[in-house]
Amino acid sequence: MHGPPPAPRPPGPALSRRGVLLGALAGAGAATLTGCATPVGAGLLKTEAAPGAVEYWNLFGGGDGVRMQQIQDGFRRANPGTPLKAITLAWGDPYYTKLSLATVGEEPPDVAVSHLTRMKTLVDAGLLQELRPEDLARHGMAPDNFNQRAWQAGLVDGRAYAIPLDTHPFVLFYNTDVCQQAGLLDSDGQLKPITGEAAFADALARAKQVTGQYGATHGINADPASPWRLFQTFYSQLEGEILADNGTRIVLDDAKATRVLDYLRALTVEQRLMPSAADYQGAIAMFAAGQAGFHLNGEWEISTFQTAGMSFGMTLLPNIFGGPHAVQADSHTLVLPARPDLDQARLDRSLHFVRSVLDQSLTWAEGGHVPTWLPFAESDAYRRLSPQSSYAAAADTAVYDPPGWYSGSGSNFENVIGSAVGAVEGGQLTAQAAIAQIRSQLSALARTPSPV
Amino acid sequence: MATTISAPDQIRTEPGSPPSGGADHRTRQGRPALLFLAPFLALYLLFIVGPALYGLVMSFFHTSLVRPGLGEFAGLDNYAEALGSSDFWWALWHTVWFTILTTPPLVVLALVFALLAERVRRGRWFFRLAYFLPYVLPSAVVALIWQWIYTPELGLLSRTVDAFGATAPNWLGDPNWAMVSLAITTVWWTLGFNFVLYLAGLQDVPRDLYEASAIDGAGPWQQIRRITLPLLARTTTLVVVLQVIASLKVFDQMYIMTSGGPNFSTRSALQYVFDVGFTDYRTGYAAAASTLFFLLVLAVSAVWLVMTRRQESEV
């Protein structure tokens, strides 16, 4: 390197390299010391970031994320004396891994969101505080304030560990323009009730005639969750069970599972009423573009279609198999991770925040979730909310994942079944082969002693 | 290679000639060298060697993600379970299959494009940039771009194929195609890195060799075959080793684009480790599976090292 000749040194104290390095080091040290208020400093020195604050972790992105922010802001406005530190982490495994590790490491948040079906595993691992009735009562929360299906599903050995915030079922979206032309709407512009295998296939066929492409869409590629939810919905309508004895026994009913899988195969591969190859985003895009009259997905996608500006309605997934009307669902719950330094004041701060979130159920319900907080769920404000209130019955027909250490939202249990169901819908596996595969993979999990 | 010009010798002499002073010189340099290495070594021990050893220990225990400590001693149970699990073997095979699919095109195409870009007279910077640009993208962005390209019915690729009257395969949804589709994405994405390595190698080829050979009447093809390729041999070795290791470590593309599907047909070894370790909380078993995978990578690297050593001593 032949740079320009070094400039003559200016008079006065020279800035040596050593001086610069020492200065930088001192600066960094000072920054660390004064950094007690920063998360890193607080973590290293094990001090509290802000005394008297509520730390809250959640996993909400997209439209849910925006609404949760509004709820948090609502809490901040009403409680200026209680700083709220809200942290949003990526949905799924990254979230539950961090929540578990933070709790094991004795630095958990005060309040955290958990899916109801994942919450039980956390309880088994001893990571959650029991919510005692007298503590809840101080904040005006009693078991009969909640939708009973969600509340009962959340109990472990009769004890409460989680406050259900909503029920989020798998629902049927319909394009009102397409369904109007197909003659599937009643005089009020609502979808006429559909019941039975033939009626549902017929509705899809009529929608397909209008769109020229497909009757309905749902994610299959790279999306085991959607096929799992669809399968669980129909299989539960046949009163089928998958796991027993806390997941140690597989009780999959071959005849019932075959009936569901054959029906799904008929809709996709044989009659081509649903595409056998669409990924999650693609399935949404096709419905939003009017290439399909129906879309099967969780109600949380309501914001997507509202943003797309299309005219659509939502309703319960039809009862196809004539048994009790069942739809796959899960619930978001608020939990209090176990912590060694729990005192009454902290507990009350946390429960106060939980109650504040429940009181803002309207904001949450706008995002499509069915409220479980009865003071709101039974109000006129909710009944007026359309199309959100049109599938409110889902809260009472909800079917949750069977208990087991390997089941729950985003678990390998769902992946195993969803992948096999997706392969049937994609035409790669027969119903028999899929059932054999499910049984073999689930048996390996059932044999394994619980790691929690 | 007997007919090649004596240039390889010229290159070989550079690292071959030891600095004067020998052993004495080296010990005097030792302490400051260690001091300079200390920050790196400390981090390396703390974040690579330490966790690796801890993982090895963990693989002999029924360690759980949600319980403190190592848990119950398992002996070789975890290893026995992994070796007896068809899911584990399939995942291992998917990783190997991905490596087989991606390594040859990533080496050959990078070389071809580097040669072409080197021959361009005008706008050379554009071609250099164009090939390297995808490499700067994060995996999530690449995955999103290609997910839309591969989307059935609506996607760019499906529509193009349909427009030609053929039926587009279900790129990511068909178990027979999913891995090929992921390989194509990966080639597009990471080609730029090997391309740059080859470009750098090409700059090291002495110009006068081309001049001399041109005077002797060698055509462009002969020059490539007799001068360029032999002189790039070391670069090729480097590129292949780096590529094989990078391909074996594949995780992002599958995790984002197919979640290991359809029906687990693209689940890589690392994703298997992720699934059992993080989704199932079984970190002890996951550590055993990843140790077995580590042995595979080690074996491949060792074989390659022996082969290249031999190749070098033959030159």
TrEMBL record, chain A:
Pfam families: SBP_bac_8 (PF13416)
PANTHER family in UniProt: MALTOSE-BINDING PERIPLASMIC PROTEIN, MALTOSE_MALTODEXTRIN-BINDING PERIPLASMIC PROTEIN
Keyword set, alphabetical order: Signal, Transport
Keyword rRNA processing attached: no
SUPFAM superfamilies documented for this protein: Periplasmic binding protein-like II
Keyword Transport: yes
Similarity field: Belongs to the bacterial solute-binding protein 1 family.
Protein name: Sugar ABC transporter substrate-binding protein
InterPro entries reported in the protein's UniProt record: SBP, TAT_signal
Domain of life: Bacteria
The species this protein was found in: Plantactinospora mayteni
UniProtKB/TrEMBL annotation, chain B:
InterPro entries: ABC_transporter_permease, MetI-like, MetI-like_sf
Region (Disordered): 1-26
Alphabetical list of SUPFAM superfamilies matching this protein: MetI-like
Compartments in which it is found: Cell membrane
One Pfam family in the UniProt entry: BPD_transp_1
Spans traversing the lipid bilayer: 34-57, 96-117, 129-149, 177-200, 231-251, 285-307
Keyword Transport: yes
Protein keywords: Cell membrane, Membrane, Transmembrane, Transmembrane helix, Transport
Annotated membrane topology: Multi-pass membrane protein
Signal peptide: none
Domain ABC transmembrane type-1 stretches: 92-304
Subcellular location, principal: membrane
Similarity comment text for this entry: Belongs to the binding-protein-dependent transport system permease family.
Protein name: Sugar ABC transporter permease
Source organism: Plantactinospora mayteni
